[in-house]
UniProtKB/TrEMBL annotation:
Iron-binding zinc finger CDGSH type domain sequence ranges: 12-54
SMART domains: ZnF_CDGSH
InterPro entries: FeS-contain_CDGSH-typ (IPR018967), MitoNEET_CISD (IPR042216)
Keywords, alphabetical: 2Fe-2S, Iron, Iron-sulfur, Metal-binding
Keyword Iron-sulfur recorded: yes
Name recorded for this polypeptide: CDGSH iron-sulfur domain-containing protein
Lineage: Bacteria, Bacillati, Actinomycetota, Actinomycetes, Kitasatosporales
Domain of life: Bacteria
UniProt entry tagged with the keyword DNA-binding: no
Amino acid sequence: MTVQRRGPLLVEGPVEVELEDGTTVSSDRFRVALCTCRRSRRYPWCDTSHRRKG
């Protein structure tokens, strides 16, 4: 896992993430970006929405 300042968490895949409501999402990509700002429309996956201000 790689932590980026003001950015997503980069995780070597494949990964499985359990969300707050108990559902599980997975990705078989070799690296995924997990959103830490909750601005992503594809949460928990980062879509770079953190770059936009406002």
